[in-house]
Amino acid sequence: MFRGKIKGLVVILFLSIFVVSCGDLEGNNDHGRTAGSHSKKKLEVEEPKEPINIKHEITISAIGDILIHNSVYDDARNDDGGYDFKPMLERVKPFLSDTTITIANQETMIGGTELGLSSYPSFNSPIEVGDALKWAGIDVVTLANNHTLDRGEAAIQNAIKHWETIDMMYTGAYKDEEDQKTIRIYDTEEGISVAFLSYTYGTNGIPVPIGKDYLVNLIDQKLIEMDIEEAKEKADVVIVSLHFGNEYERMPNQSQKDLVQFVADLGVDVVLGHHPHVLQPVDWVTGEQGNKTLVIYSLGNFLSGQNEYYRQVGGIVKFTVTKTMENGEASVRVHTPKFLPTYVKYNNWQDFEVIPMYQLADSDLPNADQRYKEIKAHMSQWIPDLKFIEK
């Protein structure tokens, strides 16, 4: 009898399951329900994603004129007849090699000894100058200046051959038309590209050979505008070096200001000035689109044989470039300029060396501290918060 009851219960349970199953087959249950809409599952609302914001940064340094007078290359001469300029740059090398890119104005062509070395007024320098700059951390040299044609095309071609041999980017003077048409763009590992352009007001009355305009870039607003337009299309940052102004004047003239405003209106990011052989102040210039252009009207002499105090003072300008990628859109900003005043020390036209001014003692330069303070005030008069490098 007990077994009969169990069998009866099994039968009833089986029939119940069968009825439910049939109900499913007849569509009595909600098959449109998902896991997210299950009555026992709480629906979670997905939070909106933060916009993608990626920043890359590089730093850039620039120095003024490398103007190799005979006193400088005589001091660099070795017993074997070669030249070594490295000791002259040893104390500033740490400040030249600590940025992503460093640029120098190579005022004298390194045409080499085969053309005969010479100094003012017609310069030709040893190729070892280039080796020393490479060793010290220079990555780019500008070649458009009033001494570019001093020793003719042969010196330019010799110099370019050596720059290429040591893998140094050059701009402002070129070996042929095709070379001139190639905008110099430095692609960094950080994903920021920088274009370098270079122009000079003239060549000391030496005519550019007919059909060879590529030997030196002259300041021509149409040429500059075309080059800047192409550079902006191909690079994130555009830096223009201008050889202009009046020699030995410590403030820019109106022509300098007008030309800087012209390139700022075209959207140039940085202007590096050369030729006065003395320092002229740093400034921010606003372009017509509201853009800010960093300007150093003159970086002075970095290494030369000139012997008047202000002509022995130069410097290293440094600044940061930040590229921000946000939702597929890129924006680039130049900011945080800094300056390191330098001094060319020598004794009886020997033992030339470039020294950071903050490291000078009175034995190096009489009243060194007061002179250093005056240079800082001069360079920062338009940017009162300009930072100075002192370590």
TrEMBL record:
SMART domains tied to this protein:
PGA_cap (SM00854)
Capsule synthesis protein CapA domain: which residues?
59-306
Determine the domain of life of the protein's source.
Bacteria
Pfam families, per database record: PGA_cap
InterPro entries this protein is in?
Capsule_synth_CapA (IPR019079), CW_Biosynth-Accessory (IPR052169), Metallo-depent_PP-like (IPR029052)
Question: Family, per the entry?
Answer: Belongs to the CapA family.
Q: Kindly provide the name given to this protein in its UniProt entry.
A: Capsular polysaccharide biosynthesis protein
